[in-house]
Amino acid sequence: MKHRIIFGLIGLIAILWVAPALAARSFTSPVPTPGQFDMGTTQLVTIGITNTSTGGNVNERLFQVQFQLSTTACSPTPCTNTVFSSSTTAPAGWTRTAFSATSVTFKANTFADALGSTAQSPTVPPTTGSFALVLVVGTFTADLSQTLSKTTVRLSANTNFGGSHAVNCTAGNCLGSWKAMSLQITSFQTTDLSGNPVSGTASGNSFRVVITVKNISTATQNGIVANPSPPTANTVGTWKAGSPGCSLTGTNPSPLNLASGASGTITYTCTTVSTPTPDNGTVSFTAAVRNGTNTATSRSATSNVITVSQITVQMAITPVCLFSGSTATMKLTVTNSTLVTIFSVTPSALTITPANGASTSSLTGPSPASIVSLAPGASGTFTWTATVTGTVDTTLPKPTIKADASVSYNIGGPLQTTPAASDTEDVDDFVVSVSPTSTNAASVNAELTFHVKNLGCGNNVTQVTITAPAGWTASSDVYSIVTDTLGNSLENNWTVSGTTFNAPNAAAQMPNNALGDFTVVYSATPSSAGSSVFTVSVTDGTNTANHNGPETTVTVNAFGSGTLNQTQPSIWREIFQ
Q1: Which of 13, 7, 23, 14 is nearest to 65 (CA)?
Q2: CB within 8 A of 463, min separation 6: which ones?
Q3: Contacts of 330 (CB under 8 A, 6+ apart)
Q4: Closest CA to 3 of 47, 50, 48, 68
Q5: Dihedral sign (CA 181, 214, 285, 43)
Q6: pLDDT tens, N- to C-terminus, the chain (577 residues)
Q7: How far apart are CA 493 and CA 459, in angstroms?
Q8: Beta bridge pairs of residue 209
Q9: Cβ atoms of residues 157 and 163 within 8 Å
Q10: Are strands 245-252 and 263-271 parallel, antiparallel or unpaired?
Q11: What's the rounded Cα separation, in Å, for the pair 495 and 305?
Q12: Is pTM beyond 0.70 here?
């Protein structure tokens, strides 16, 4: 008799294989396809498991699966191991029965939920299950190929799962395969020759392709280049042979040597053709990056699409710093680079594509509705506006919007139409919360800490102001712990006036993705129960966002309702520091 189980890795697509544990039991699979993951990122890997037990074991159902990662310390240092995330959950009909950073176990809730054999006649579904594993990929000094360290399954023919059999796999294809990548392409953008992002240009013009690369490994990476160089051009439409022709302009810094966490750019200048027949179509570019020894590489990335034609059409969204609740302006600019006047220039309806929870409202435009004519070298702009909203969360991608439209025009024959798409714009914000979220009425020395994370548009936070609602009296006992631009978490480094906290200098400011805790001890709370909504104003010197909703609400319970009515903040801080 033989047990044979096929493990299919969906997303990473690794099929698991277990060498014979006993003469009567074996597992087979094809070679897995390696995945590529950026170091330090959270990745979802879904593993499909199919029970194909045969012979006298076809009545056994697969009811438990355990996945394990290596517990051996990583090397060379500095480094961090890849671990399972606690957000890993079981599929329907199963329960996550055990979890650690290096091991996760799933068990079927009932015999009917367990996986039956595909060889059973008739089959008793389900025969396949999918298990979503959330990995926090480690950080290392160079690219590192990784696998699971062990996979264990258990099978039983009994409804109570008694008399089960376990089979372990510690080598071979059963462990899957992925690669932790040292370099990350964070931007792949076409620009004009002045460095401004563009999505369209006239035939005969030159433009640039800028690759921004970040070293996400723990060691310095030297001699970083694009691969291939120049990047592969993905053209659609009519193009002269060899067009667009791209050549390396330079790197910044030069040579492109990056310390851990540092970023740099690789820039190419590309030329198009205007002589008959001129270039007319779209192009994007694809490349990866690597260091000089090919031991640190990135995943392949593709740039935005740029349209090349004799009539240039570009869509842009402003402002770049787009906070929830603010007004976005979409501008469609048409430039006539031909030698004749074009007529009846008319935009299509605007399409706004929101993502990650973004939404838009109060759309206006276009203004104007059309342009009678554009002389050679002239430009015209159509404008729309919309209110953009979206909730920025510390664990999810930022909300985004993207705008698309086309323009039609007459150039002495049938109407021509040229489309344009904007870059994707993030919705930015400062994420705010408060703890604790409840206290008692008529209390003294109530300590509240307001947590702020800078998920704005790249500027450093310079000021945080906390405004209490009626009934709260702030004492002079205030303090802060803020992560500064050097990565240091410093206590009471910010100055305080009342309940307004200010960075004393540029180095002390809170950079993007950094955290700050701002604590105020209130000498008096409201005299009666209710909800108190605080206002937390956060500014980065350019933008100010006020938070006064559920995230800053404190419930005031009746006096003596089961929690302390007086605290001693200084003693508590001494205990926890």
Answers
A1: 7
A2: 500, 501, 502, 503, 537, 538, 539
A3: 315, 316, 317, 350, 352, 365, 383, 384, 385, 386, 403, 405, 422
A4: 50
A5: positive
A6: 334 333 343 333 333 333 333 324 444 444 455 689 999 999 988 888 888 888 889 999 999 999 999 999 999 999 999 999 999 999 999 999 999 999 999 999 999 999 999 889 999 999 988 888 999 999 999 999 999 999 899 999 999 999 999 988 888 777 878 899 999 999 999 998 989 888 888 788 899 999 999 999 999 999 999 999 999 999 998 899 999 999 999 999 999 999 999 999 999 999 998 777 888 888 999 999 999 999 999 999 999 998 888 888 999 999 988 888 889 999 999 998 877 788 999 999 999 999 999 999 999 999 999 999 999 889 999 999 999 998 888 778 889 999 999 998 887 666 778 888 898 898 988 899 999 999 999 989 999 999 999 988 888 999 999 999 999 999 999 999 999 988 899 999 999 999 999 999 999 999 988 999 999 999 999 999 999 999 999 998 888 888 888 999 999 998 765 555 544 444 444 434 3
A7: 19
A8: 190, 268
A9: yes
A10: antiparallel
A11: 47
A12: no
Q: Where are the beta strands (DSSP E) in 293-414?
A: 301-302, 306-309, 311-318, 327-336, 342-347, 351-355, 359-367, 371-374, 379-389, 400-410
Q: In angstroms, rounded to a whole number, what is the distance separating the alpha carbons of residues 226 and 211?
A: 8
Residues 6+ apart with CB under 8 A from 398: 356, 390, 392, 426, 427, 428, 455
Residue with tokens 């319970």: 557
Q: Is the omega angle on the peptide bond into residue 126 within 30 degrees of 0, that is, cis?
A: yes
Residue with tokens 């008739």: 122
What's the rounded Cα separation, in Å, for the pair 465 and 536? Answer: 6
Chain-centre distance for alpha carbon 456: 14
Q: Which two tokens stand for residue 394?
A: 């510390």
